[in-house]
Amino acid sequence: MFKKRLLLASRWIIMLIIYTGLWAYTLFQGDTASWFLTYFFSFILIVLFLSSIYPLKAWNVNRQFAKNTYHDGDLVDMHVTFTRKSRYPVGYLLFQQKLPLSFGKLNARQQLAYPLFKKKFTVTLDSFVGLRGIHSFPAIDLETSDAFGLLERSYQTSAEKSLTIYPSYFPDILEKIREATPENERNAAYWTLKKNTNLHSLREFSSGDRISLIDWKSSAKTDQLMTREFENSATSRLSVIFYGVSHPHFELSLRAAYSFIRKISEENGEIRVSILGDKTTNFSPSAGTNKLQDISIAFAELSPKDGVILQESLDSNLHDGEKILLFTPCIDTMLMQKVSRLTDSKQLQIITFESDQAIDTKALFLEPASLMSRWERENK
């Protein structure tokens, strides 16, 4: 900042020296051309002075994203809105938005605008592919100059902008698990989730209820139409664990676990959720949009961890008497020894993508291609 101010001051000093010399030459020469040159240079100095006194910080910069919710692989569009109180003429504004390092090696987004007398204008930056995570965008750099390009000035806004990109969601995750089930029938964990709906209670029929749910025997006894209500007893006793070990299939396994939990939660299922990674997050059985939002954020900011460290967290997240679905990128000997010692194999179902050849397991193996985002499929 000090160097820029020093450069600006030095340019003004040079201008004043030239202007003083021009006046001395005009007074000594005294012809019409000399006076015209002096007046013209005076006009330029006035324009430069007026351009230099307008502060760039008078611009209020507001950044908004085109959508409220982004998922991994979506194209992110950022709208930058500039507002000010006056209509002071500004020839151009060059602004730059640097992208967080969490997006990888992406070039900063630059845009040139010509506000002139405008008090408000909006510019849309070039789109970029979103990656799962919580990203913090640094402040925007502004740059402008006078009409002659002699006195350049720059300013950096102070505010940062945060963006949360959630994992890709696959609503058909239950079908993907069914396709991975041997003969589509033998896996009890899947079919209890899909088929085991038990009668919970009876209530009076109301407008909007399905006719197929009417209990005719109870209706005949009470002389009132009674409809059946169901609950899924399997999901109320289900525990879902995501084992976030470092592996090339980490993102795919995370998407599978997130999609499964979200799908069951949207159907009002109450499940226990344990997310193991660089952070360990546990959610007790409950329903509601607030819980689903908290789970989505936990998945968004999760990073993988070494398997040796994760096994220490796994001990406290295996509960007796519950069906356990364990999502993991891969299965190794240490993991199998741990879960075999702590749980009943009849209550455990592992859903993964890869396994050591020496391990004999009844895990379900999902197809990696089925959980790729659209951007990944197009650039594969």
From TrEMBL:
- Write down what this protein is called: DUF58 domain-containing protein
* Entry-linked InterPro entries: DUF58 (IPR002881)
Q: Does the keyword Transmembrane helix apply?
A: yes
Stretches that traverse the bilayer: 12-28, 34-56
- Is NADP tagged as a keyword? no
Q: Where is the DUF58 domain?
A: 202-240
Keywords from UniProt, A to Z, are: Membrane, Transmembrane, Transmembrane helix
Taxonomy-wise, where does this protein's organism fall, top ranks first?
A: Bacteria, Bacillati, Bacillota, Bacilli, Bacillales
